[in-house]
Amino acid sequence: KKGSHRTFMEKEIFEQPGAAQSALFSRVDSNQRRIRLGGIAEHMDELLQCRRVFLVGCGTSYHAGMMAETVIERLCGYSVTSVLASHFIDCLPHVGPGDMCVFISQSGSTADTIAALEYANKCDALTVGIVNTVGSSIYRQTDCGVHINAGYEASVCSTKAYTCQCVSLLMIALCIHFEQRLRQNQPVSDLYDEIFDGIITLPDALSEALDESKHIHEIAKKISAASSCLVLGRGFSYSVAREGALKIKEVSYIHAEGIAAGELKHGTLALVCDDIPLVFVAPCDRYMPKMQNAVAQCTARRTDKAKDGVVIITDDTAWVSAGFKSVIKTPRVHEMVQPLVSCVPLQLLALYLCEERGFDVDKPRNLAKSVTVE
Ligand code: UD1
Ligand code: M6R
After folding, report:
1. How far apart are the CA of 369 and the centre of ligand 2, in A?
2. Looking at ligand 1, which residue's alpha carbon is closest to its atom 12?
3. Residue with CA nearest ligand 1 atom 23
4. Long-range contact list for 30-38, CB < 8 A, 24+ apart?
C-alpha cells in the first residue's frame, strides 16, 4: 500500500529513516559501543583469517559495495575490491580460501550475482550474503550473512534497500574491527568510534535530508527539460555520483553519467556547456578544495550567470554565499557515512524529474524488479 504517497518510490524514499533503524535494530549495543550481528558471529574466526574482500553486486547493490570499500579497508585492514557481478563471472578472478566474497542483493535472486556466488563457492572462498529477502537463493547458498531488514521494496528503483545495504556493510566492518582489537587486547580506533556514532545517528540525519524535498522539487522543475546531465563526486562521494546517475536515468530517462570529478580534464570537460545540468556532490570533507576547483572548471565553461543548471549537494553553506542558487543542504555526518545522506537528495531529484516529465515512476520502461536471467 502506498498510503499517503503518490508512488512506491516516493514512499520508500521517505521510509528510509525507519528502514535504517530496522537494519540497526537490536544489533547496536550502545552500552558496550559494539555491533552484534547474529548472522556472522559463528563465522568470526574464518572472517578474521581473510586477507582479501570482494564486494559483488549489480546496479545499486554494486554501488553499495563501492560505498563501503574504503571503510572496510581502513577499519579492518583487508584489501577490498568492489566488482560488478557480471564482470566477476566474465573475468573469473583467482579467489579461494583466505578470500571473503560478499554478495549484495536486495532480491537475493539476481542471476549474475548468483552465478558469481556459485563460482566463489566452487573456489572455496568464504561467501557472505547481504540480502533483503529472507529465504532467497543468495541467503541459502552463502556460508553466512546479514539480512538488511529494509522491509518489502516494491519500486523497481531501489532506494531504501541501498541505504540498508550500506548500513549493513558498515556494521560488518565495525563488528570485525571490534573483534580484531578485542583479540589483540587493544582498544578500538578513533575511526571506529566516529563511524559508530555516525550510523547510530543516521536515522535522524536521513530525516533531516528528506526535509529538503520541496526545494529539490523546485530544482527538478528547472532542469527537467534536459536530455543529459552529469553527476560529479570524488573520494567518498564518487559512489554516490554513480548511484545518483543510475537513479536519474532509470526513472526520468535523462541520460546521466556519474563522473569522478578528478577525471574531468581527462575527457568529460568537453561535454560541459549550458545545455547539460551538472550536479556536484560536494560535502565538506577532505576533498572539498579539489571539488571547489572542479566546480570552478565547469562554471568557467558555462554562460548562465544565475547558475540554475549547477546543483550542489552539500553540508557547507559557503556555496550559497558563493552565489549558487540550487544548493541542496544535507546534515553533516562523518565523511565516511556522508554518502548515505548525500544519496537522499539524488533519489528525490530522480523522482521529481520523472514526475515532471510525466513518466510512471514505479514501472520504468524495459526494466524488471528482479533480474533472474543473465
Ligand atoms: C535476526 C533477525 C533480524 C533482527 C536481528 C536482531 C530474521 C531473519 N533476522 O537477525 O531481523 O534484526 O535478529 O534481533 O528474522 N544468512 C546467510 N546469508 C545471507 C543472510 C543471512 O547465510 O545472505 C544467515 C546468517 O548467517 C544467519 C541467518 O541467516 O545464520 C540469519 O541472519 P540475520 O537475519 O542477519 O541474523 P540476525 O542478526 O540474528
Ligand atoms: O535485487 P538486486 O539488488 O540484486 O538487484 C540489482 C539491480 O538489478 C538493482 O539494484 C537495479 O540496479 C535497481 N533497479 C536500481 O534502482
Report:
1. 7
2. 25
3. 129
4. 30/200, 33/188, 33/193, 33/196, 34/174, 34/175, 34/178, 35/171, 35/174, 35/175, 35/178, 35/196, 36/175, 37/146, 37/171, 37/172, 37/175
Q: What was the pLDDT predicted at 75?
A: 98
Query: Low-confidence residues of the chain, pLDDT below 50?
Result: none
Distance 335 CA to ligand 1 centre (A): 28
Structural contact between residues 312 and 284, judged by C-beta atoms closer than 8 angstroms: no
Looking at residue 305, its pLDDT comes to 61
β-pairing, 28-29 with 34-35? Answer: antiparallel
This prediction has a pTM of 0.97
Q: Which atom of ligand 2 is nearest to the CA of 165?
A: 3
Among 277, 62, 28, 14, smallest CA distance to 159 is for 14
Predicted ipTM?
0.96
User: Which residue bears the cell 514512499?
Assistant: 11
Indicate whether residue 85 lines ligand 2 (CB < 6 A): no
pLDDT of residue 373: 84
How far, in Å, CA of 5 to CA of 59, rounded?
25
8 A C-beta contact, residue 315 and residue 331: yes
- Which mutation among 7, 55, 61, 346 tests ligand 2's pocket best, with the greatest number of atoms within 8 A of CB? 61
Looking at all shown ligands, the one closest to residue 167's CA atom is 1
**Dist. CA 145–CA 4, nearest whole Å:** 34
**Residue 155, C-alpha cell as written in the block:** 519500486
